[in-house]
Amino acid sequence: MTPPSLGQTLRPLVAILLTALVLWRADPPAVLAAGARADLTWIAAAVLLVVVDRTLMAYRWIVLLCPIDRASRPPVTALLRIFFVSTFIGTFLPASVGGDIVRAYGLSRLQVARGAAVASVLLDRLLGVVSIVLVGGAAVALVRTEDVASSASLVLWLSITAVICVAALAVVFSAPAAEFAQRMAARLPVARVRSLAGELPQATRAYARHHVALTTVLAGSIAVQVLRIIQAYCLGRAIGMSAPLSTYFAFIPLILLIMLLPISINGIGTSQAAFVWFFSRAGTPAPEAFALSVMFVALGVVGNLPGGLLYAITPAERSARL
Hints:
Elements: H1 6-26, H2 28-36, H3 40-63, H4 76-90, H5 97-108, H6 114-142, H7 152-173, H8 175-185, H9 191-205, H10 211-238, H11 245-259, H12 270-280, H13 286-313, H14 316-319
Helix pairs in contact: 1-12, 2-13, 3-10, 3-13, 4-5, 4-13, 5-6, 6-7, 6-9, 6-10, 6-11, 7-8, 8-9, 10-11, 10-13, 11-12, 12-13
């Protein structure tokens, strides 16, 4: 039996300790009071929007399988099962990285080349991050809320992420960049990692001729980010927060980027700290911001539950594929 790694041990501790610290500073009784007065109508609206965004997320990943020959592409039902089960399993893993690994592994088990399987998941994640940067950048440029649009920290964080995204996209659209990435992969110390990393530049380069598919996925990703912002707004309205929708457009993209950091489980702890820190700058009391953060994470878990149901009802011989 393999002992847990240091990361596996620390991430739950980070989630617990960071959540406890932010909760203590936010005043637990006040947080409970904010949650207790939640309006179920607004919560129901947020849940309906989660159904829409999960459908869009599944669709955009299936579109990203365009480089795979149609004759050898797995059936849509199998792909949907992989997607939803991986999102459920990812609930218990670091940020979204764990779910991505499960998805790539499940796809490779359906006779899809390993490099192509991983590339589809990486492009899905990359375009998702690009969409967050685009939506967040547009909000910072257009929103004129006091201490929101002018915040240097927002601009800096978005700019750093944008530079990383451009560098990653260069591997797709630039042959020299792909060759450089392949040379770097050849220097990795672990043989299995080196082998997989060596396949990725070529697999990602296959997307360079699929402009329509990439544009479709990017548009779908932007729609998903807008839906998530509106979900947060609905949850905020449910507990009586007075912040305007423009504030959510300014802050939620940055919070989503922080939640992607693989330093805790499912963004627990990091999301609480980010919600309280950002929304306090717009005058939202810490108890309300903390309650909103918990509801936002819980909403994501609700959106992942269909995958748990699929995993539970799938016969053992088929579940062995994932």
